[in-house]
Amino acid sequence: MTTVRTPSPSVLPAHRTDGRNRARSGRRLDRAFSGLTLTAGLTILATLVGVVLATATFAWPAFRAGGIGFFTGTTWSSQTNTFGALPMIYGTVVTAVIAIILAVPASLGVALFLTEVCPRRLRGPIVALIDLLAAIPSVVFGLVGVLAFHNVFQTVFRAITGPKANGSSLLTAGIILAFMIIPIITSIPREGIATVPGHHREASYALGATRWEVLRTAILPAGSGGITGAVMLGLGRALGETIAVALVVGSAIQITPDITQPGTTMAEIIANRFNGEGMGIERNALMGLGVVLFMITIAVNVAARVVVNRAQRRNAGT
User: Fold this and answer.
1) What residues does each domain of the chain span?
2) pLDDT of residue 88
3) DSSP labels for 147-159?
4) Cβ neighbours around 262 below 10 Å, total
5) What is the Cα–Cα distance from 270 to 243, expressed in whole angstroms?
6) Which of 140, 161, 183, 200, CA to CA, is 20 to 30 A from 168?
7) pLDDT in the model for residue 95
8) What stretches in the chain show pLDDT beneath 50?
């Protein structure tokens, strides 16, 4: 019986040796890439934790002095060291909600027009204009609101609600924010709708559906995850916008159901009152507003992720 001997590594063919060397080199590169990506992910997490700890540490004296009253109080006075954040929270939420109410229908309409109705030769220029609108600095929107829209809005508001309406108001800030977030909310649904499989449309048309029925029953459900994510992204932008809102909101620390009256937001009051000089407890209170705004933004992003994941699972199940 003949015994087959395996050649030792020293006498293996050159091409097999080169193959093993390449495999070992590939594994080392894979481990290095995994370590690099892990480091990047941990760096982002550490940055987030650092931001939370730093702002919370600076804000803690205001939280300790005001207690629950910091979140529920309506008076902000540096003379009496009384700092209540509720008017700023109210103004931030109101302006963001106004912006979302105005921007979402317009954004979805533009996205559907570009993907389903617009002629191909016009699609490129319109998309370029929308992207250009997203690149305009926020201070330009604020200046346009102050110089061009303030008097127009004031005239319209007074014609509708009475002589007390003001051009610098929560409603004006919401309208300016709507213009700012329309490009953001438009882009993501447009890409999502464009990737809906063609057989969804064809099957609906084959069953006798009209164009509106195809949009409502086939296209919008398939792109619901992207639409929800876009809306939440726009909401996050509206919540944190500073300069444009500071120029048109009126800077009045008050809670009023009349949205044609001046108001304020958390980002606006931080921008107007925070500076490098020592301001005692008020500086800590402004940092506290930053913590509250940060927590609200995180909550919005988490809610968006949950909604998007549910929509994706629902679409995958169907």
Assistant:
1) 89-266
2) 93
3) IIIHHHHHHHHHH
4) 20
5) 11
6) 183
7) 94
8) 1, 12, 277-278
Q: How many CB atoms lie within 10 A of CB 76?
A: 22
Whole-model pTM: value is: 0.81
- Predicted pLDDT of residue 316: 62
Please tell me whether residue 85 adopts helix, strand or coil conformation. coil
pLDDT for residue 225: 74
Question: Which residue type, as a one-letter code, is found at position 195?
Answer: T
CA atoms of 155 and 188, how far apart (whole Å): 35
Q: In angstroms, rounded to a whole number, what is the distance separating the alpha carbons of residues 166 and 153?
A: 8
Nearest to 237 by CA among 229, 247, 248: 229
18 φ/ψ angles, rounded to the nearest 5 degrees: -65, -35
Q: Cβ distance 266 to 187 under 8 Å? A: no
- Domain covering 89-266 in this structure, CATH number: 1.10.3720.10
Quote the pLDDT of residue 69.
Answer: 87
Give the span between the Cα atoms of 245 and 80, in whole angstroms: 27
Backbone angles phi, psi at 166, to 5 degrees: -125, 145
125 Cβ contact partners less than 8 Å away, ≥ 6 residues apart: none
Q: Identify the pLDDT of residue 91.
A: 93
Query: CA–CA separation, 23 vs 11, rounded Å?
Result: 19
Please, which residues have CB within 8 angstroms of residue 46's CB and are 6 or more apart in sequence? Answer: none
Residue 279, classed as helix, strand or coil, is coil
Amino acid at 219: I
Residue 207: strand, helix, or coil? coil
